[in-house]
């Protein structure tokens, strides 16, 4: 049996021990709480830092992609619009006043009509002759071409204005068409037939063959993309193509005015062979 003293002592001792335990537990809880709070605070700080890092990274990625896009926009070739004008001939400034584009429909009717069709006659010969009348033009120096070698010298006009003798590609093509037309009618154009004779080695004379191929290359070069549609006719077994399409053409009057202003006939002393000293025409 325990005595009161013993019980009291034990009771006080137990109470004291409990109070000490409570204080330790309280301190432990406070310590744990502070540790948890610090940990939570650190996590919140870490999350904020991560968010800032992602924001900075996103901004850098956006700026990098923007720069790449701008570089591609500047470097990539443009399709359509005014940038097509960058493809120009070396002498585009000289001929700029001669070219004015317009929409035109060809005269594609069959049959004999107009001055360029039908049998040879004075009207037809005059019409074809007028088309190549202004064949040689005075090209301002330097002529947009190197003088080549000692065996090849640019043909210069020998008057005060000087300049290089030249022509335009479309005039050469018209000359080819006119020559082929006359070649097909040897009885009417005996001079042309005499000049261009067929041989077993060249059933198509060299000059005529050259003209055919130049015209082929010219058509492929310009690639007129005007549409020709087909339709059925009651009395025709095959579809018939309609040629009266719209085409983009150079204004003929402006071209002719430019030719008139720059044409120089190469006759007489204005053109002299540099080696023989003679006029070729």
TrEMBL record:
For this UniProt entry, which segments traverse the membrane?
A: 54-76
Q: Which keywords does this chain's UniProt record carry?
A: Glycoprotein, Membrane, Transmembrane, Transmembrane helix, Virulence
Q: What coarse category fits the chief subcellular location reported for this protein? A: membrane
What is one Pfam family matched by this protein? UstYa
Location in or out of the cell: Membrane
Name the UniProt record assigns to this protein: Tat pathway signal sequence
Note the InterPro entries from the entry.
UstYa-like
């Amino acid at each position: 049996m325990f005595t009161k003293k013993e019980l009291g002592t034990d009771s006080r001792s137990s109470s004291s021990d409990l109070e000490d335990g409570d204080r330790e537990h309280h301190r432990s809880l406070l310590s744990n709480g502070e540790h948890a709070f610090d940990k939570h605070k650190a996590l919140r700080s870490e999350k904020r830092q991560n968010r800032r890092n992602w924001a900075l990274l996103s901004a850098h990625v956006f700026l990098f992609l923007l720069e790449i896009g701008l570089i591609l926009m500047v470097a990539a070739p443009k399709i359509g619009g005014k940038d097509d004008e960058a493809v120009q001939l070396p002498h585009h400034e000289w001929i700029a006043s001669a070219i004015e584009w317009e929409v035109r429909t060809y005269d594609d009717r069959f049959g004999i009509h107009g001055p360029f069709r039908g049998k040879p006659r004075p009207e037809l010969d005059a019409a074809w002759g007028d088309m190549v009348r202004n064949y040689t033009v005075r090209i301002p120096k330097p002529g947009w071409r190197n003088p080549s070698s000692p065996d090849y010298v640019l043909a210069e006009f020998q008057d005060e204005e000087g300049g290089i003798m030249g022509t335009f590609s479309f005039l050469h093509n018209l000359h080819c068409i006119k020559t082929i037309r006359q070649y097909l009618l040897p009885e009417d154009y005996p001079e042309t037939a005499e000049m261009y004779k067929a041989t077993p080695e060249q059933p198509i004379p060299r000059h005529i063959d050259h003209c055919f191929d130049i015209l082929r290359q010219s058509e492929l070069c310009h690639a007129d993309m005007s549409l020709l549609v087909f339709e059925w006719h009651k009395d025709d077994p095959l579809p018939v193509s309609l040629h009266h399409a719209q085409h983009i053409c150079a204004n003929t009057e402006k071209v002719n005015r430019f030719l008139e202003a720059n044409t120089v006939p190469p006759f007489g002393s204005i053109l002299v062979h540099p080696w023989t000293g003679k006029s070729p025409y």
